[in-house]
Prior knowledge:
By secondary structure, the chain is mostly helical. It has 6 helices and no strands. The model has no long low-confidence stretch (mean pLDDT about 80).
Amino acid sequence: xxxxxxxxxxxxxxxxxxxxxxxxxxxxxxxxxxxxxxxxxxxxxxxxxxxxxxxxxxxxxxxxxxxxxxxxxxxxxxxxxxxxxxxxxxxxxxxxxxxxxxxxxxxxxxxxxxxxxxxxxxxxxxxxxxxxxxxxxxxxxxxxxxxxxxxxxxxxxxxxxxxxxxxxxxxxxxxxxxxxxxxxx
Length: 185
């Protein structure tokens, strides 16, 4: 076994272990932090495999954006942060289903690839990826950024009921004896 093999096994074990803690934790914030560990281990796997750009995208997009968005959503919606036992289910059926799906996928991949070694493609450079993203795919890239920005603004507006609220109408003056006529809007 090489050093790369040992690193792949260790990082894979960390990713799977943290993923199991994500779904089994009763604390929502701790689940988010375990998700950071799991996604960070996957970024480490990409580094060991020589895909540095994909590893940094993993860190920036998933660890840096998705998990922070999850934690902000928890804080903005005032969701309960402590342990929540109201949604606990017996772990037996879900473990059985998960093991069955995992074994089925392992058998499918083993049969599909039949342990054949495929030739490795020529590695791309960051310059080639940048040319593709900011040349050919610049319009979808910008449309996606506007979509994500509007979703973030919408989430903030929905989570804050005081934003956009109309002020209460002034109370009718008491004691004047005059009634104000209502004007249709």
